[in-house]
């Protein structure tokens, strides 16, 4: 018995010796296999998962010996049976990158499917544990080199015995789990205690949740990063394009860089640049590149939808839309390219995209459009209301984190229109318009709306939305053709700049509350010369504008927009200089829309228009947001209630550029309204502004206050601070006019410096603080207990009466110096009649 055991052990050792010797003789081949495999995987990872970790290695002799000892019962010839004598790992960040790398491996290697496994699929839904995708692969003849990996595979790797390698594809968190759980526990040779096993299972559950969270975050960040128009101005995007073109010139094969450059070009509607850049990477097979290239080609050649180039764009979209994981957006984009060629084909493609993800706003919106256009009614909307509401909620979540913009708002606008919620629809379209960084972003939804003309009478708010998109396109991206199209909707008599719109509460139920603002509004226009637009009735805010017409006749021209039929509780204010009528019956957003049509069609830039808002109801709420969307400066008197108070808590509009919360302070409102026209020559204006800035620097230095960017010399001053000093120079006229002083140009003698009285200094200092308030508030500053230039907060954004005495003295010191500032450019301040 003992001899037989000895003979058996001797035979096992001899068998093992021969196996190890054979493996040793082949080790050089497996080392070559590992080198070539690493070269392939690294090149692919640079395109599909740029931050991936790639590892390859042949199995060591010691590891081979250990494994044949442990696995000897199941393998008679392990050197030819083992599938992991060469191994590789690709460790990526997200499950989506795992899928992308896995698809490449499946497409370009011979897969031993019997021995390959997706370990994550072993678990029951209630289990967690070791997760990874394992492939047993061999090199495929004539598969390399290719567009993905420029690597030549030596012939010996195709002809060697047992030419297989194991590739593991994991996320970073799966890799951490594998290192601890698999390598330390699975290979330890003993059963681990149940307590540790439970703890490992709990950690596995946490890691799986973390992987899912990382995946969502990465997807959201990438989407946000590609929404360039949300956080970049067109000028900034062009600078970024110039930089990327330079870098790409030195790294021509960088698909990720090319894709980013293409998306920037698309954000600007520069289809030629997008085609030129992306067209060099068609062999990469990169889905986003193919999708964006196809879209750009079809946009560039949209006038010839049956032409060769347009059809080539469709083929790229078809390629992006096919494969193991079709790109839903590519399918919907492909459908859009067929709308003018084959409506039924477009309809079926939209349906396919919708079925892939019913609550995706792009897929659902286009599917609804296609069905409604085909049916000539909106009956399908009632049946799909739950899905539409779910999609609106999804759009809202996207908007909250800044992704899929402006399209999430365009989708919400369309859905609200279909659901007969016209006010919400118009506001959503206004936000989308504000976020649109290129003409095509407005033209596409405009075409979509125009496709609904046959049923427009059944869609409450259709004309509002259509008018807004036409006006927004002409305002944001003006051309003669767009202004001409808008003029067809405009009043026959041109509107005259400068313009201030006064909006807010006109409801007779709030008449007593509104009356407290009358003197504030009348005082705000004391220096103004130009056109004032308001509601045209005697109630509330529009009645105050009638008062302006009486008090400032000759300097202010008042204009109102009213529906043909006004409600019985409203009274026409005949003090207005002109009343223009709309086709509406009863007040609606049609009136403010019409005044913007007249403004824009007259060639007046919305950025030069100011809107003063106090209180207000549902129409005012829309009016404030329309003005912000078009680029006007909107000042809302704080604490004035109702819709005015709801702007700042509104997550979409509360931090909108051009929105200012004005204190109930006469001088701040007066500075916000301004004069309506410049008075200095440009060289004189600049000289006064420089003198004001130098005085500011000297005063700050004397007080030893901590330096900041506002203390820089004139030549190094930031643009917004230069603008601030220029505005302060402009305001000199209002200050001097207020105290009955005038300016006289002097030559040939020394200029006499006038000394202001204490009351005069106090009045002008209060005016200067009001000017500073208005300027800062329009620049996005807000009140806070501490001053922080980076966060744009200041404790001094208050009325003059609430200002600390030492801060008031800053303004007094500046206005006392006005005669000196003006003497520097040859002007003498004299007492006399108000100008």
Distance between the termini: 127 Å
Largest sheet: 7 strands, parallel
Structural class: alpha/beta
Describe the global form: elongated
Give Rg in angstroms.
36 Å
Can you give a write-up of this model?
55% of the residues lie in helices and 11% in strands. Strand 8 (530-534), helix 26 and strand 9 (556-565) form a beta-alpha-beta unit. With 835 residues, the protein is α/β, with parallel strands linked by helices. The longest helix is centred in the first third of the chain and has 47 residues, at 2-48. A seven-stranded parallel beta sheet has the order 10-9-8-7-11-12-13, sandwiched between helices. Strands 1, 2, 3, 4, 5 and 6 form a six-stranded mixed beta sheet that branches. Strands 14-17 form a two-stranded antiparallel ribbon. The protein starts with a helix and ends with a strand. Helix 15 packs antiparallel against helix 16 (361-375), helix 20 runs parallel beside helix 22 (462-476) and helix 21 (440-450) packs antiparallel against helix 22.
């Amino acid at each position: 018995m003992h001899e037989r055991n000895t003979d058996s052990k001797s035979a096992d050792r001899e068998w093992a010796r021969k196996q190890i010797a054979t493996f040793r003789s082949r080790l050089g081949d497996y080392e070559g296999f590992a080198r070539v495999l690493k070269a392939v995987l690294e090149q692919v990872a640079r395109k599909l998962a740029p931050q991936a970790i790639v590892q390859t290695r042949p199995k060591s002799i010691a590891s081979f010996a250990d494994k044949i000892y442990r696995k000897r019962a199941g393998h008679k010839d392990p050197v030819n049976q083992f599938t992991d004598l060469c191994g590789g790992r690709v460790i990526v960040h997200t499950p989506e990158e795992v899928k992308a790398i896995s698809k490449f491996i499946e497409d370009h290697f011979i897969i031993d499917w019997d021995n390959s496994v997706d370990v994550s699929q072993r678990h029951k839904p209630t289990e967690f544990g070791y997760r990874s995708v394992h492939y047993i692969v061999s090199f495929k003849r004539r598969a390399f080199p290719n567009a993905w990996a420029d690597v030549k595979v030596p012939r010996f790797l195709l002809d060697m015995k047992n030419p297989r390698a194991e590739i593991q594809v994991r996320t970073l968190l799966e890799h951490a789990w594998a290192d601890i759980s698999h390598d330390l526990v699975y290979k330890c040779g003993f059963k681990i205690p149940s307590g540790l096993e439970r703890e490992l299972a709990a950690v596995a559950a946490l890691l799986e949740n973390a992987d899912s969270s990382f995946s969502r975050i990465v997807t959201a960040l990438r989407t946000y990063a590609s929404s360039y128009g949300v956080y970049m101005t067109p000028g900034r995007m062009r600078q970024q394009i110039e930089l990327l073109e330079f870098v790409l010139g030195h790294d021509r094969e960088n698909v990720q860089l090319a894709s980013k450059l293409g998306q920037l070009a698309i954000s600007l509607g520069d289809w030629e640049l997008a085609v030129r850049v992306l067209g060099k990477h068609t062999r990469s097979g990169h889905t986003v590149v193919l999708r964006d290239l196809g879209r750009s080609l079809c946009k560039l050649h949209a006038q010839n939808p049956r032409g060769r180039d347009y059809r080539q764009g469709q083929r790229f979209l078809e390629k992006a839309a096919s494969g193991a994981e079709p790109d839903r957006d590519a399918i919907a984009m492909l459908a859009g390219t067929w709308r003018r060629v084959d409506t039924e084909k477009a309809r079926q493609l939209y349906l396919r995209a919708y079925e892939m993800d019913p609550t995706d706003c792009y897929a659902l919106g286009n599917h609804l459009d296609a069905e409604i256009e085909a049916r000539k009614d909106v009956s399908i909307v009632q049946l799909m209301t739950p899905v539409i509401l779910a999609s609106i909620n999804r759009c809202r979540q996207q908007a909250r984190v800044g992704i899929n913009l402006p399209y999430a708002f365009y989708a919400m606008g369309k859905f609200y229109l279909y659901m007969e919620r016209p006010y919400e629809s118009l506001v959503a379209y206004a936000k989308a318009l504000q976020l649109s960084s290129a003409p095509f972003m407005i033209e596409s939804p405009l075409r979509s709306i125009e496709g609904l003309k046959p049923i427009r009478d059944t869609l409450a708010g259709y004309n509002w939305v259509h008018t807004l998109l036409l006006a927004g396109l002409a305002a944001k991206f003006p051309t003669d053709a767009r202004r001409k199209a808008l003029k067809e909707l405009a009043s026959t008599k041109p509107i005259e700049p400068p313009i201030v719109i006064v909006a807010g509460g006109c409801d007779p139920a709030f008449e007593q509350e509104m009356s407290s603002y009358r003197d504030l509004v009348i005082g705000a226009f004391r220096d103004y010369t130009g056109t004032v637009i308001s509601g045209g009735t005697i109630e509330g805010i529009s009645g105050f504008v009638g008062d302006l017409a009486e008090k400032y006749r000759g300097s202010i021209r008042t204009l109102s927009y009213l529906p043909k039929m006004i409600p019985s509780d409203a009274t026409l204010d005949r003090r207005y200089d002109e009343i223009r009528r709309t086709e509406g019956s009863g007040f609606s957003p049609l009136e403010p829309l019409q005044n913007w049509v007249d403004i824009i069609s007259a060639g007046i830039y919305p950025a030069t228009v100011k809107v003063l808002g106090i209180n207000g109801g549902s129409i005012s709420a829309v009016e404030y947001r329309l003005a912000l969307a078009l680029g006007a400066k909107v000042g809302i008197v704080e604490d004035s209630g109702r819709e005015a108070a709801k702007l700042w808590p509104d997550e979409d509009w509360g931090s909108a550029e051009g929105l200012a919360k004005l204190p109930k302070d006469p001088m701040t409102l007066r500075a916000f309204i301004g004069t309506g026209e410049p008075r200095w020559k440009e060289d004189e204006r600049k000289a006064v502004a420089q003198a004001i800035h130098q005085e500011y620097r000297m005063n700050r230095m004397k007080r030893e206050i901590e330096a900041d960017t506002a203390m820089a010399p004139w030549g190094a001053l930031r643009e917004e601070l230069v603008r601030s000093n220029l505005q302060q120079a402009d305001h000199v006229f209002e200050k001097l006019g207020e105290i009955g002083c005038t300016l006289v140009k002097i030559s040939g003698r020394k200029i006499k410096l006038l000394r202001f009285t204490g009351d005069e200094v106090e009045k002008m200092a209060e005016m200067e603080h009001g000017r500073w308030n208005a300027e800062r508030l329009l620049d996005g500053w807000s009140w806070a207990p501490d001053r922080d230039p980076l966060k744009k907060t200041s404790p001094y954004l208050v009325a003059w009466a609430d200002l600390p005495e030492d801060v008031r003295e800053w303004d007094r010191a500046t206005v006392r110096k006005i005669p000196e500032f003006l003497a520097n450019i040859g002007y003498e301040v004299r007492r006399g009649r108000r100008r």
